[in-house]
């Protein structure tokens, strides 16, 4: 399997292929498949006992997961297989991509939502004006129709 990035085996930061040594740790970078799997936290509950902070495509999931890790909030990331009726999101909102849920303990939900709002505030604050045609989504540059209420590609909702 070919990767378009390398990873530090110490801090697990990701780097472009042109970088050979971690800027923070000073160790040689490796391909992602050569890293040992991160152990699951012991006794961390299954998704059914957790609260979902965000569901989205992989880049969004990485952003919230990295932020939760930085502040020490334990969480679980798994593909979200829930139907819309069960609280899931229709994958068509994201072009049919696999969607992932980021799940935390109920006691950590409020703190996780604060972090989530900080990360995604830019998307919520940049509501597109009413389109007269020829405009694009401010988040992903997908062309918009004049009556678009949300981006058909990334799911950004316009106010």
Please tell me about this protein's structure:
By secondary structure, the chain is of the alpha+beta class. The chain has three domains: 1-32, no CATH class; 43-125, 2-Layer Sandwich (Alpha-Beta Plaits); 127-159, no CATH class. It is 19% helix and 13% strand. It has two helices and five strands; from the N terminus they run βββαββα. A three-stranded antiparallel sheet has the order 3-5-4, with helices on one face. Helix 1 (58-70) packs across helix 2 (109-125). The longest helix is centred in the C-terminal third of the chain and has 17 residues, at 109-125. It is globular and about 50 Å long.
The succession of helices and strands, N to C, reads EEEHEEH
- Would you identify the CATH architecture of the largest domain? 2-Layer Sandwich
Inertia-based shape:
globular
Strand arrangement in the largest pleated sheet? 3-5-4
Major sheet characteristics = 3 strands, antiparallel
Number of helices: 2
CATH class placement of the largest domain: Alpha Beta
Radius of gyration: 18 Å
- Please mark out the parts with pLDDT under 50 across 5 or more consecutive residues, or reply none: 125-133
Integer average pLDDT = 81
């Amino acid at each position: 399997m070919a990767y378009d990035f390398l990873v530090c085996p110490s801090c697990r930061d990701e780097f472009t292929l042109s970088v050979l040594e971690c800027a923070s740790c000073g160790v040689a970078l490796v391909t992602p498949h050569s890293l040992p799997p991160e152990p699951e936290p012991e006794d961390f509950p299954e998704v059914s006992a957790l609260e979902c902070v965000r569901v989205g495509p992989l880049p969004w999931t990485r952003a919230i997961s990295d932020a939760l890790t930085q502040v020490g909030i334990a969480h679980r990331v798994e593909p979200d297989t829930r139907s819309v009726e069960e609280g899931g999101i229709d994958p068509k909102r994201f072009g049919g991509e696999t969607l992932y849920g980021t799940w935390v303990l109920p006691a950590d939900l409020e703190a996780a939502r604060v972090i989530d709002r900080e990360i995604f505030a830019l998307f919520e604050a940049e509501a597109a004006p009413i389109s007269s045609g020829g405009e694009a989504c401010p988040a992903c540059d997908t062309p918009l129709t004049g009556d678009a209420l949300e981006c058909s590609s990334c799911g950004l909702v316009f106010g």
